[in-house]
Design goal:
The complex is a heterotrimer of chains A (152), B (210) and C (674). With 210 residues, chain B is α/β, with parallel strands linked by helices. Chain B contains seven helices and eight strands; from the N terminus they run ββαβββααααββααβ. Chain B starts with a strand and ends with a strand. Helices cover 37% and strands 15% of the residues of chain C. Classes of the chains: A alpha+beta (152), B alpha/beta (210), C alpha/beta (674).
Amino acid sequence: MTEKLAAWEKLSRNDKLLINMLHLIQEEQGYISRNRLAELAEKAEVPVSQLQGLVSFFNSFRTYPAGKHRISVCYGTACYAKGAPLINDRLVDELKLKDNIDTSSDGLVTLEHVYCVGACSRAPLIVVDGEISGKIKSHQVPLILESLRRKE
Amino acid sequence: MEKMIEIIVDGNSLAVTPTIIVLQALQEHDIDIPALCYHQALGGSGNCGMCMVEVWNTNSWEPRHACLLPVKDGLIIKTATPRLKLLRNWAAKVLLRHRPFNNIRVEELLAKQIQDEMQSQEDEWLEGSIKKLADNWSDGCVLCGLCIKICSKVGKNRLTYLRRGKKLCISLVRGQDDNASCGNCRACSHICPTGFITPNPQQTFTEILI
Amino acid sequence: MISRSELKGPSVHKYQVCKSGLESKKNPIGLATYKVPDFPVNVSLESLIAEGKITLCSNQSRINVGVATCGRAAGAMDIYNNLEKRDWCGAVRVFKVGCIGACYAEPLVHIRTPEGKHYFYGNVDMSIFWHIIKTAEEKPGTKTLPFLWAITQESKTGILRGIQDMELIKVQNSGFRDFFQPQVRRISGRCGLIDPENIAEFAAMGGFGALEKALFRLKRKQIIDIIRTSGLRGRGGAGFPTGDKMNIAYENADLVRYVIANADEGDPGAYMDRVLLESDPFSVLEGMMITALAIGASQGYIYVRHEYPMAVHALKKAINCAHKVGFLGNNVLGSSFSFDITLVESGGAFICGEETAMLQIMGGKRGEPQLRPPYPVRQGFQNHPTVINNIETLANIPWIILNGAEAYRELGTPKSPGTKIFCLAGDIKRMGFIEVPLGTSTKVLIEKIGAGDKESIKALQIGGPSGGIVPYKDFSLDYETVESAGAIIGSGGLVTLNKKRCMVDIARHMVNFMASESCGKCSICRGGLLELEARLLTLTSGKGYPSILTEIEALSKAISSISLCGFGKTAATPVTTTLTYFRDEYEAHVNGKCPAVFCKPLINFEIVLPCRECHACHSVCPSGAVKRRTDKNERLVVDSKLCIKCWACYEACPFDRIRIVSEELHGKDDRNHS
């Protein structure tokens, strides 16, 4: 990481965009830890509060670790109209998620929402670990989770 | 002495200094406009939406924020029309959801703007669902951001907004190790319009990041 | 300028490993299509074109598999891997291409044979592999044709600049013809035909011609004048004249200028930027370069959406590739013009598509929109003049430069000239990405191209969440007409909603989206949308009260009047438009009925007779609500007390014997206030 940070530091002033660096940090650990953020704030000479504000502004940055697998349900208009809420409700039910908690208690799956991945013709869509699959029906949810469990 | 310019407010002509904004001009002439998030030292931000006035713009009246509108020679504005009352009514309703405020005067000021009281039964259900929809609701704070602005100006820049939209909140980000304290200058507590921030800001904010 | 052969570097096509014989059987390596040399070279456009032709119009058969996001969602990678693994003995080459637009037909495979014929196979699965293989391998005249959708022939064999250079000679799937016939592919003609990672193929299809013309044959002012007379309007939503924007930056006294391509396409239901970036990234780069040349910028940024990993990947490759062959960097094409592009990856926030919010993020701050004026074109990135254009706008620029402003104005309406890309989604049969002249009627788009059933369509959502929802009728799609209907063209997403969709619930969903995506700075936008959402939720949960509709109306008005930025001003549009056009549905909800039978608290499920007792509903029901009634006539029933309204039985029933009902509540006492 320090190498990446050093490489980033060498960029010209115009290319030194904080957001690009935040993506690199997130890629490394799957989330952005407080320590990394403090490190970046020092290097970039901005207050940590500003960075915290920036990180929390975005949906895709996490500040705490995620589960082993990540399922994103697309909540774009087309997917919503074609039944994304049903898939979501079923997932919440099967994973026994409670309010404000997005990861199942066994740490297997993190449930996220994404607003349109741009493949509306296959609505409703879910993205499982980066693999996108379309035309999902809610009763397929247990099968999807089962296949993830079997991978363990 | 600066040359004065003329603006027309509710049909009366007023002489004002050319470098100020409409809200200042109105306040100087004792025209009462409710404003919550405006502070002279920090400028307007258009946050609370209470200071709306109507401005004549070539062929129609346009609602604008008095705190963001610089005065201009010949500017024609109205401060009390049915439309403005309606706008203030809703702006005040939205702010009053964060009731109760420590500062009673602000609560009274806002309550004055409300035109139609809702049936308490229905309002209760609405309030319940609003607080459920917004993840971390804070009673007493209207999230106007004055504390953040003042902290970046006179304090150690430790305050920030976190997240956005429904989940927006204000948080204190502590420094590390021996630099942890926010400095306790209490500027935020002095500037807070609703009296939410107590003299010890480090105990006020629910979400404190280290 | 030094050509590649003089440098004695290996010529590009020599990298292309041909697999044949034993070697390939042992180790089925991929065909390296275009390998960028790892040293910077200046390649002339001619040599690039020649190299591109080798793969594009070769004397081998070429199989294109569409593997853009939509293709992947339909399983195109499996198709590609299977075709790619096969030992073709050097006779056929398999390529990954982007999306041709017919997303409904994914996975789509198309084969170009050496005589210039193109064979299209849609909805490909393993069962028709054999036919694809046959088509690619057999000699002309002996082709087997079942499962084929269409055959096209290049007007002049060997010349292919886009889909417009092909003539349809045989149609076996009339829908495929109907999908393409009304379209005019000016800027998206290359999509789905070229390998998006291959700069040479892009050049061979007429790419970079406009850049060369702009660099060597036009003055900077002339470029701007051409764009101005073309009447091109920004495709991002507001429709500001692009040429005027360029001119403002050009005339600014500040000599440091920037170009930013806005690819933060947040509108759900609009994905034209994604398709363009995934299928033809170089055309966007070319448009950016021409803009930069005209306004005098030497640095550009592409602000791209994080949710489009494929587009990010394609852009990274394209920028890298253009650098290596000297089309980006110092002295582009040997001229005095230098230009560089940096990629900025957003983190997923709809509001950042607003230009001032985007600039805040690029400055490392929270993405709160700023007051305009000053407009970014006068005072933008780092307070220098910055031209921010949408991806589709940029892709229009090369076409205009190459063909002239007059040719551009031939299509479209006088006030909205040119073509526009729309994305069709929702309740229609043929969904996808289409390009039609502005002013084309909705009837053509929805009924002809999209094959929507006129009777069942209730409404159209135009222009994303801040656009509007209008009843479906025949009207012309240009900026003015759509605006007068209460919506905006926006980026061009068209979501069709049929009679099963509840307008109140859709409006609630939109407001929920807007309330979550608001930056939150203005109290009225954050809190007001929350109030609005709570009221709509009151309706969809059957707890409406008499004055609620007036409240919703007044609140929507307050939100749009008090909010400071474009986001807040338009945030309530879905509510105001649905309330205007579908007021009866709102009124029904006040009385506790959902006419579209969608809102969970207002509906019940019933099994209607004759039921075939297949027990499909019983086996999928997660809550045990479907059970056997034993008292009277023995049959399956849904116990409304146990039913969680998950629709599983409805989806599972093979005979459509599940009915959903919603009835008005009479009298306020029925309602259970909690």
